[in-house]
Amino acid sequence: MKIPFEKVLDKAEEYKTDISRFLRDMIVIPSESCGEEKVILRIKEEMEKVGFDKVEVDPMGNLLGHIGHGKHIIAMDAHIDTVGIGEKALWEFDPYEGFEDDEVIGGRGASDQEGGMASMVYAGKIIKDLGLEGEYTLVVTGTVQEEDCDGLCWQYIVNEDKIRPEFVVSTEPTSCRIYRGQRGRMEIRVDTHGVSCHGSAPERGDNAIYKMAPILVELRALHENLHYDEFLGKGSLTVSEVFFSSPSRCAVADGCSISIDRRLTNGETWESALQEIRNLPSVRESGAEVSVYKYKRPSFTGLVYPTECFFPTWVLEEKHPVCKTLVDSFKGLFKSAPLVDKWTFSTNGVAIMGRFGIPCIGFGPGHEDQAHAPNEKTWKEELVKAAAMYAVIPSIYVEGYAE
Predict the structure, then answer these.
(1) How far is it, in rounded angstroms, from Cα 170 to Cα 33?
(2) How large a percentage of the chain has pLDDT more than 70?
């Protein structure tokens, strides 16, 4: 089948108003992690309206919209949970009411990442309108709890829903570039222990906070010397939280804990990242414990699906058929070569490719620097371009690269 690129672009432009309206409908519904039920139901309504063949919600709360019945299973993913709004005084407009002008839509989730969902749903309509179905089944996923625990939703989809696509397109924001990898990450905890006593005689106790102090200094130095990868860049480490335990303000602390946000580049592993910290002289001297956090917060359905907070690094080779599929789709639509790059932040790809080895590739409307920021916005032109891309990717893959 010859792909009607011009007709796809025309249809995507025709649906710009519908895409914009749908995105604004999602923004107006608060949908922080574990509270996504209402926005899931709104997306389900829109999928059914535009003609998806099957729409269902799994026991975790993930939305699965199907188009077609072919043998090649292709998935496109958008997490539809958002972070909170932070300090509201930093917003120039209401983060949930949002705003819209001729070029931009603003509001929490506009770029990260409900814009990707809006474009995917209308890509489904374009496929239906133009008869682009083929030997594929497209599964459009609206996934939950990503902001809390990226990739957990896909652990459930693969392990429990038994859906294992040939590849997945992540619609996280890429500024309409093609992204083929990201650093992994870990959430690490370090605990020191002491003995409490009255603060008027601290020599009687053993202050756990003082034990942590040299560890903090050595962690800062460790960050500067982490491994560097030519494509993904340098591994990183930062202390993100500090906790203590003490009988009172008038006592020596008997416990101190810190959280570490550790970003893993190519060549670093779960084991090596933990061992680097355990090998620090201050950690050894203090007898500090180094461990990985576990996530076990219930989804909005009440389901608990525990996992360790380890999110593996992944990179798709530039010569991989899936990467070539997206490059061909972009060139066919826009008559120019795309920029192929990587994300700075983490995505559901940590499970899709990092844990399961399913090829993952990124193309999304919106910009990374809008994620988690006040005055978040996205661009209508990019929503339209993304809808066109999502509509042609399955056909390009099936006709050119599928085995």
Answers:
(1) 18
(2) 100
Which sign does the torsion angle of CA 278, 280, 285, 286 carry? Answer: negative
- Burial of 159-182, coded b for 16+ CB within 10 Å and e otherwise, reads eebebebbbbbbbbbbbbebbbbb
How much of the chain is helix, strand and coil, in % rounded to 5?
35, 25, 40
Query: C-alpha 386: how far from its chain's center?
Result: 17
- The tokens describing 86, both together, are 């932070």
Confidence of residue 320 (pLDDT cuts 50, 70, 90): very high
Distances (CA, A) of 123 to 51, 172, 256, 311, 323: 11, 16, 51, 30, 19
Map residue 29 onto helix, strand or coil.
Answer: coil
Residues with catalytic roles: 81, 146
The answer to whether 235 and 183 are in contact (CB under 8 A) is yes
Domains observed in the chain: 5-182+313-400 (3.40.630.10), 184-295 (3.30.70.360)
Taking residue 187's Cβ as centre, other Cβ atoms within 10 Å add up to 20
Contact (Cβ atoms closer than 8 angstroms) between residue 315 and residue 266: yes
Express each pLDDT in 373-394 by its tens digit. Answer: 999 999 999 999 999 999 999 9
Tens of pLDDT along 55-80? 999 999 999 999 999 999 999 999 99
DSSP single-letter state for residue 370? G
- For residue 1, the model assigns a pLDDT of 73
pLDDT digits (tens, 9 = 90+) for 263-287: 999 999 999 999 999 999 999 999 9
